[in-house]
């Protein structure tokens, strides 16, 4: 038990050190894959959470700014279209492109879309106000003008569903585990043995 807690504490300290200035792109969970290319996804809620960045779920119903930054320069030469769909079929986190149906069905479920065009600066920004909590589906399409080949990325996300454990600050977790380890390893006081009464 104590050995397990010690290992957990060491792993937590290592994770904390790695997360400040040493995060590699392969460890960034905010990465979208569009075929062989990648883009960084970030969501913001300036009216509720100032400049706090979200990678997956958006905690508050209301305005959200979604920013997609291309990692590979090749995406800057593609014709890119970005849209958000209602999850009308209840696909949730398992949504795939094959589940979305044909173009007409996708168009029917589209809540907001940016026009298809090239983004030479490598950044796509969508400002949208969500009015209802629940699951939504982001769909990013990138078409090569030379070959006509289109590659897609589908990323389901939730709005208005809070996960407090997810945003619990790492130092609080460290303090809690350290306190638990202290309680389990500190020397226990021996209960004094009192003399039995004389008969």
Describe the fold and architecture.
The protein has 199 residues and is an alpha+beta fold. Helix content is 23%, strand content 33%. The protein has 4 helices and 9 strands; from the N terminus they run αββαβββαββββα. The strands form 2 sheets. Strands 1, 2, 3, 4 and 7 form a 5-stranded antiparallel sheet that branches. The protein has a 4-stranded antiparallel sheet with strand order 6-5-8-9. Helix 1 (2-19) runs antiparallel to helix 4. The longest helix has 18 residues, at 2-19. It is elongated. The model is unreliable at 8-26 (pLDDT under 50).
List the helices and strands and how they pair.
Elements: H1 2-19, E1 31-34, E2 37-44, H2 46-49, E3 53-54, E4 63-70, E5 79-86, H3 103-109, E6 110-118, E7 123-129, E8 134-143, E9 150-159, H4 170-185
Helix pairs in contact: 1-4
Give a quick summary of the entry.
This protein is an alpha+beta fold. The chain contains 4 helices and 9 strands.
Summary tags:
4-stranded antiparallel sheet; 199 residues; 23% helix; alpha+beta; 4 helices; elongated; 9 strands
Helix content: 10-25%
What is the arithmetic mean of pLDDT?
81
> Low-confidence spans: pLDDT under 50, at least 5 residues?
8-26
| C-alpha geometry | elongated
Strand runs, count:
9
Whole-Å distance between the termini? 46 Å
Rg from alpha-carbon coordinates: 25 Å
